[in-house]
Write a structure and sequence with these properties.
alpha+beta, OB fold (Dihydrolipoamide Acetyltransferase, E2P), de novo design (two linked rop proteins), five-stranded mixed β-barrel, 9 helices, 5 strands
Amino acid sequence: MTFGCEMIVLSYTKYGESAIVLHTLTRQMGRRSFMVRVGKGKSMAHFQPLNILEAEVTENPKSNLFSARKFTGRYPLAGIRNDIRKNAMTMFLSEVLYRIIKDGAQEEGLYEWTVGQILALDALQSDFANFHLRFLADLASALGFSPDFDGISPFAGDRMELVEALLQTSFSEAMLIPMTGEIRNEIAEIFLRYIEYHTETPVNIKSLKVLRELFA
């Protein structure tokens, strides 16, 4: 059976010389991976982190790994793709989702929430250095364990005041909280440890250090 599927790109893994396994978060099936034929010289632009795509998906009766083809972008995301800092942030956000959301998991409303987050980042003109921090806090809520004082204080240490500010202020106010790149990394690690504890999923985000350098 072949059907249309809407998906968010999280990552991909090379499979031989002419294929990749595309790891995605889909509207219809939650976290799923697909076999994609790429061939020599074929553009990989569709498969950048957090691109929102529509594709034709075909079930494989012999495997849970369906195939996908005929990709089209749902949104141009020019605000992200034309900004090196936003591109780096999408690498971080997609890695977080890839490592935290288990293959086959279907979290109600998570796809729609993630699309909203991507479009919000795309639209921001300035003051988005704290975006990934608010994303992590809101992701915890989207997964069903909203951070509160008692729950997150064991992880926050002497950064609790900043963590509370990120949680309790409006989105626009949270974007304006002054922090160095080093402190942002500390806050990100706090939220990651909190999420790791609740999901019982080891998280080792390699792209976090890039944000420290770009948003010093």
